[in-house]
Design brief:
The protein is built from 16 helices and 20 strands. It is of the alpha+beta class.
């Protein structure tokens, strides 16, 4: 891989105030540089503490292009290690999730490691004495990532040893995670219902952009969500609205609805749709939920929590959180033209089971490989990835409702159909791609 030709100047030339050069989506060299710089210097979501509830429980995943394993080393201590044997470089942990017992054991030569990554034992260890093992990198064991931070059971890491703090990177945007957790009467979430995964033949940034693109739903989803709504409206008068239609219908709301919804941007590329309204704001009430929230928080605080109508919150670089419907989507970069999408469901501890059932239905209808709505977006991504290679045009437009002073604002609330959050993401992209790299 050759990324040396991307100078700061050449990277800056790819991002204009209202336009993004097509190379940002199509260049494999640029993708490789993103893995080296962007995904090592930002705080990236790893998993949730409920996925490793017991000591020695582990969960394997990737951060950028780096294989890692999240493991509970002690009751209140979660570590993130590179999933690589210090001996021959073999992936130590093969299963997605499980319990190590007492240690990790490489399946190749049986080198074993404690759950903090330190080297525990080597078969026939005396044979390495003459090789100067104590002075070798291998003695360091399974290496830990640069930093780990657990925020309300959400586990994030920064691959780089040095860099921006967790609090500085996220700032006030953490209020979305707070609201999602606070929707539980017990203030606790657990991962539930497994995960939906499917590959998208497009660049990861297309998916991130789409989460705050409110000018496409009534167009792209007309044939899916729109058809479902039309069929229900043709039913005999008095026919109860099916739960699926309740979830589908907001996707084909008019432009005016999305304009009034609002978008908030935060620094470092974070932001969300839904400051005044959202597609999740008018779901039918679940029996017993309000009573449980009122008992837990009091009437005023419960109203404040449930009155928050955020739609999609983007945590730069690659996750989206839906607090009101309790799901998280992770856009995992594989190549310049391949992205693995994971959709995770969370259960509100202490809340009625019907809330989890509604979230699972939403995931099946919208985000599963067999979904109805999600494939509309997938086709758009595929078409864009192919056509961006057209030589006749070089730039992608992100200029809708541009404001001259956007870049100077740490936080702003704007028209719900603005592309301000997309521009915000690319300012952050440029920041982490071009600043001097850590030694």
């Amino acid at each position: 891989m050759n990324t040396n030709h991307w100078s700061n100047e050449s990277l800056q030339a790819l991002i204009r105030e209202r336009e993004v050069h097509r190379d940002v989506y199509t260049s494999q060299d640029l993708f490789d540089l993103e893995m080296q710089r962007l995904f090592s210097r930002t705080w990236v979501y790893v998993g949730h503490a409920s996925q490793v509830p017991q000591v020695a429980d582990y969960f394997t995943t990737t951060v950028g292009d780096q294989p890692v394993v999240m493991v509970r080393h002690a009751p209140n201590d979660i570590r993130v290690l590179y999933n690589r044997c210090a001996h021959k470089g073999v992936q130590v942990v093969g299963d997605t999730q499980g319990n190590t017992g007492k240690y990790f054991r490489c399946p190749y030569h049986a080198w074993t490691y404690r759950t903090d990554g330190s080297l525990l034992a080597i078969p026939l260890k005396q044979g390495y004495d003459s090789g100067g093992l104590d002075a070798c990198e291998a003695k360091q064991g399974m290496r830990a990532v640069g930093a780990v931070h657990v925020y309300r059971d959400f586990v994030f890491c920064r691959l780089s040893d040095t860099g921006e703090s967790f609090e500085s990177f996220f700032g006030d945007s953490l209020s979305t995670l707070d609201n999602m957790v606070d929707r539980s009467p017990e203030g606790k979430l657990v991962v539930a219902g497994g995960v939906y995964r499917y590959m998208h033949p497009c660049n990861w940034k297309m998916l991130v952009e789409n989460q705050t693109d409110t000018c496409h739903p009534m167009v792209a989803h007309e044939s899916s969500a729109g058809t479902a709504v039309k069929v229900w409206k043709a039913a005999p008068e008095g026919t109860p609205k099916p739960a699926a239609v309740e979830l589908f219908a907001p996707f084909v709301s008019p432009y005016e609805f999305f304009e009034g919804m609002g978008i908030r941007t935060w620094r470092n590329g974070h932001g969300h749709t839904g400051t005044a309204d959202s597609i999740h704001a008018a779901y039918s009430p679940i029996a017993g939920y309000w009573e449980a929230m009122q008992a837990a928080y009091g009437e005023a605080r419960a109203k404040q929590i449930l009155g928050e109508v955020r739609h999609n919150t983007i945590y730069f670089p690659n996750i989206m959180v839906k607090g009101p419907i309790q799901c998280l989507r992770l856009f995992k970069p594989i190549a310049a033209n391949r992205t693995l999408v994971e959709s995770w469901t969370f259960q509100l501890v202490g809340a009625p089971d019907e809330l989890l059932a509604r979230t699972l239905l939403y995931q099946r209808l919208i985000n599963a490989p067999t979904s109805v709505v999600g494939h509309d977006d997938l086709e758009m991504y595929e078409r864009a990835q192919r056509s961006l290679h057209t030589r006749a045009a070089q730039w992608v437009n992100v200029g809708r409702l541009h404001q001259a002073n956007e870049a100077e604002q740490d936080e702003a609330v704007v028209n719900g159909t603005s592309e301000a959050q997309m521009r915000n993401q690319y300012r952050a992209w440029l920041k982490y791609m071009t600043e001097p790299q850590d030694a």
